[in-house]
Design goal:
By secondary structure, this protein is of the alpha/beta class. The protein has a single domain, classed as Hypothetical Protein Ychn, Chain: A. 44% of the residues lie in helices and 13% in strands. Strands 6-5-2-1-7 form a five-stranded parallel β-sheet, sandwiched between helices. Strands 3-4 form a two-stranded antiparallel ribbon. The relative contact order is 0.20.
């Protein structure tokens, strides 16, 4: 259910009575206010304005992909540092977690409470993961992987608000919980330093406008 294409997920949400949670309805709910007061997401713009590194790359992660969204940025940073004499903080690694890649951004408590390993078909060994196995150093001879160490090195992580809305709504439906409450819990339970972005595709586009090259990481 949770591994369908994103359009299938939206269709399933509508069929389950969650039409009010779809991106179109979310946009409709805010369109008038945004037109009237020319509002912008100040936090998102501030996040984008941090993309000032000597070298810039956006890693587009619509899937967990065995943790590659927290491995390839480290490979890229190391390549710059070793070949061009830079430091991590001299470069801008921007990782956008969207679609089914969003669990990478979540703290362990959410994985336990909402059975995210089961919901997103992510395993820890032979069993469904009950913790964020991408938070810390990955089991690779490559120090500095994992979302915690990347954030500490200056890498920027954005997580898609549309995906948070749709997937939290579907999990809420399955668990007979209030969708808005579950989404609020998911946002509150993101890894410290992760930025909620209006949508993953918008974040990927705007990061490229800021000078990032593109790498598909999912």
């Amino acid at each position: 259910m949770y591994r369908r294409g994103f359009l299938g997920t939206l269709a399933a949400s509508t069929a389950a009575g969650l039409a009010s949670l779809t991106p179109l309805s979310l946009e409709a709910a805010t369109r008038t206010r945004r037109i009237n007061d020319n509002a912008v997401d100040a936090a998102f713009e501030a996040w984008l304005n941090k993309i000032t590194g000597k070298h810039k790359m956006v890693f587009d992660a619509p899937e967990v992909n065995s943790g590659m969204p927290v491995v390839w940025p480290r490979v890229w940073l190391n390549g710059n540092n070793e070949n061009y004499g830079t430091k991590d903080t001299d470069n801008s690694a921007v990782i956008v977690l969207r679609h089914a890649g969003i669990p990478i951004a979540m703290q362990d408590a959410l994985w336990v409470k909402y059975k995210l390993g089961e919901a997103f078909s992510i395993k820890d060994g032979d069993a469904a993961a009950t913790r964020n196995i991408f938070a810390k150093q990955m089991p690779l001879p490559l120090p500095g992987t994992g979302i915690e160490q990347l954030l500490a090195s200056g890498a920027q992580f954005g997580v898609c608000n549309v995906a948070l809305t749709v997937y939290s709504g579907m999990v809420a439906q399955k668990m007979n919980m209030d969708a808005a409450t579950v989404k609020a819990d998911w946002v509150a339970g993101l890894m410290p330093g992760v930025q909620v972005v209006p949508s993953g595709v918008l974040a990927v586009s705007r990061a490229q406008e800021k000078g990032c090259n593109y790498c598909f990481a999912g």
